[in-house]
Automatic annotation (TrEMBL), chain A:
GO MF term list: GPI-anchor transamidase activity
Family according to the record: Belongs to the peptidase C13 family.
Organism of origin: Myripristis murdjan (pinecone soldierfish)
Coiled-coil residue windows: none
Recorded superkingdom: Eukaryota
Residues annotated as catalytic: H140, C182 (nucleophile)
Pathway info: Glycolipid biosynthesis; glycosylphosphatidylinositol-anchor biosynthesis
Listed GO biological process terms: attachment of GPI anchor to protein; GPI anchor biosynthetic process; proteolysis
InterPro entries linked to this entry: GPI_transamidase (IPR028361), Peptidase_C13 (IPR001096)
Quaternary assembly: Heteropentamer. Part of the GPI-anchor transamidase complex, consisting of PIGK, PIGT, PIGS, PIGU and GAA1. Interacts with GPAA1. Interacts with PIGT; this interaction, via a disulfide link, stabilizes the expression of GAA1 and PIGK and links them to PIGS.
GO CC field: GPI-anchor transamidase complex
Protein name, as recorded: GPI-anchor transamidase
Pfam families hit by this protein: Peptidase_C13
Automatic annotation (TrEMBL), chain B:
TM region(s), chain numbering: 6-29, 41-59, 498-520
Species lineage: Eukaryota, Metazoa, Chordata, Craniata, Vertebrata
Membrane topology type: Multi-pass membrane protein
Family the entry assigns: Belongs to the PIGS family.
Source organism of the structure: Myripristis murdjan
Keywords: Endoplasmic reticulum, Glycoprotein, GPI-anchor biosynthesis, Membrane, Transmembrane, Transmembrane helix
Gene Ontology CC terms, in alphabetical order: GPI-anchor transamidase complex
Protein name (Swiss-Prot/TrEMBL): Phosphatidylinositol glycan anchor biosynthesis, class S
Domain of life: Eukaryota
Amino acid sequence: RVTRKRSVDKAGQFFGSGHTNNWAVTCTSQFWFNYRHVANTLSVYRSVKRLGIPDSHIVLMLADDMACNHRNPKPATVFSHKNMELNVYGDDVEVDYRGYEVTVENFLRVLTGRLPPSTPRSKRLLSDDRSNILIYLTGHGGNGFLKFQDSEEISNVELADAFEQMWQKRRYNELLFIIDTCQGASMYERFYSPNLMALASSQVGEDSLSHQPDLAIGVHLMDRYTFYLLEFLEDIHPASTTNMNDLFKVCPKSQCVSTPGHRTDLFLRDPGSVLITDFFGSVRKVEITMETINLTSPVEQVEDKPVDGDLQRETHSYVDQLPVSEIIHQKPKQKDWHPPDGFILGLWTLILLVFFKTYGVKHLKHIF
Amino acid sequence: MKCISVSALFLSCSLCCQLLVPLILSLCLSLSPSERRQGQHAALAIAAVVIIVGVPLWWRTTETYRAWLPVTQINELAKLQLQLSVDVEVVFARGTLTPEQQKKVPLTQTQDEEHMVDGEDLLMVVEVYIGQRRTAMLRIGAQMRVGRTLKQLLAHLEPRIQQVLQVMSFSHSDITAALSDRVRPSPGNKESLADSMRAFKSSPGYEITFSLLNPDPKSHRLHWDIESAVQNYIQPLLTKLAPVANFSIDSQILYYAMLGVNPRYDSSLSAYTLSADSLAHVINPVEARLGSNAASSNPVLNFLLYVPDAHHSPLYIHDHKKQKVHSNAFHSPRWGGIMVYNVNDFYGPDPVFPMDINISMAKVMGVFLAQLRLLLGVQSSATPPGFVVASCGSAGLADWELDRLMWSRTVENVATATTTITSLAQLLDQIGNIVINDNIAQQVSSTVTSLQLAVAELEAGNLGFALQYSKEAILASERAFFDPSLLHLLYFPDDQKFAIYIPLFLPMCVPILLSLLKMLSEARQRRKEKQAKRD
């Protein structure tokens, strides 16, 4: 009887939420006037790190051209508040996809896992069926799409399909999707996979507005929804028990001007029982190790025995150096002959036409 | 896009000069009949070229290449009807059976088991002893000793043997846990849920990292002989587990690495303690500083050995009942384990810092080995009452435990590979725009073959081959599913497709249609005239 009771207690810890690790994927757009999107993303990144998710479990996609932009009066910083209180760029930001690597293709590849084999660990989403994933997207959006880098779009259908592929391969246990763009609610309309919860900063037909401009830097620093979201997250610490219903109340219409929306019909658990730290933090489940194995054999000392010198000594060999002299005095490679380009042909045709026009066709026999 | 432009170019070139001529001719009223007929022939020829040559050319050049996939076989496998068979040999000890009964014992008796046997409430007496290899000893109950009929004897033995088999091979809950991808475990079975969450998922390889955390190098100079410890204690287990997965081991030492939690001083023990609730917050700050092998995507098992600094020694871990934990270690599911190693015993009467300390690797490895067994899914939930299990020996793994692991891994691999290719086939079916290259089709075919072989071997009871085929199936299915070329980027909404084709084809089709209509109306007129003439 005793053993059975203990195992029930142990299992009780697990039964709160079925996840064992957390991941976060964040994203944004580029150009100086989109400063606020980068500040949004970096602030969420900071909160998530503060609450415990390590960099190895965060895939941060950032255009990353704000801190060192020529127009930034305070170089190497990105501020999120007009009193320049908090430099969200800091010393230990680990950006996994920066600049031109932030594309719809890479984002979908990260989500579905279809990356080329040469991709390093830090650029992959190595989640399993017990991972809770937080995805935060921000930027410019419209009815049914989100702009990436101001040159590409991702549509809500593609996103829903990507999540379905993740579900098919069981790459997540539960997924929280937050989007802070204009008409953000349209992005989660098409979701159809289970265990998805979505939050958006505005409904279809509404615009998400920015919070406050900073006169010294010259741009808006943050969006309203993310600003109030961060105020809310500042009160969360790793051991707090605030649940999702409080998150839904963040930024009511009076503060945000737009109406935030959320979608929980695909989520299996009741949102009131889901802790904020289930997604934003990384609270590990822990079990006490009750049993040990009795190892009695003594450890053999590894002696430096000079055994048949050849076996012990590792043969080091160096790769042959590049034959520099040959490279310097190399003859140019024979290029394959290509037929003349269209431009050259057109030019010669023009010259011939003009010639025959002026001098008449009887000069043809002088050419051929 | 190139294909579209090529075919469109061909079609438009094929009519650019010729089309205008017959159109104008046919529209002109002052044409001679032969010229008009010439115009009509030209229009007909162009229409014929467009329909017979142009349209198929456009279709072929704009379709996506999709290699053939064995969809029917995949759907059959998706039903996942597995038959698992275990060969059992029952040996009767001398004296339990009379000679006549011995002759009548049926040589083979197969038992088809589809439901879990409800655990009986046996008395707390040792009735079964399970050994290190694949044997178990059953003790017949007292009431059976005196001569009973063979039938009664066998009837008494059967449920007991079933129970033993469930412990030593697999039980319904084990298989359900292995299939947790497809089958959500029933809420009543919390233990198996905890087990399934703790052990790592089946993977072709694992990385094991041993880290020594020394927050106080000024006081302690730690020496740990990790290489020989791994060689002597961990390697035998990993060698035995070689058919299941590949393992790579590395080790590191971190200096000035503190735990994220401040331990509390307990004056009754005159020691520092870490309560069970604070353990969850210990791991995250440390994890940020741990290195890992960036080359592979295999799951990583971290084992940390923490030697508390001189000011916080000794440090004990308390469980939920505020009792000291004997092993002074804890583990986190699907991550690894941490052990706290107190060194204040090594301080002499007059400690001079920094002190040289040799860590006793046998004790440390004993704990890590136990945690490793748990994390790999070797250890199972509590055995039924009345069972005594022999200790697992120097390899750290009994043969039947290995079998148990292999059974669940094989089933898990087969289920996962089946799910993967089924969903891949469904996905490719739904999204008609994805290009299916030959290598993907080949991977899928080889997955299907390996799966069929694995299922056959499971039926026959050859565990080793079944596991090998299931591993091949998983590798091939993952390679097919995660092929970088399968990205669904060719999504065009229908209105965009119209917007692309209409400017190309409408200007071309309108003159053809108009000229054909004109010819039809002229032919009809002529027929009317002929009829009028006859009349």
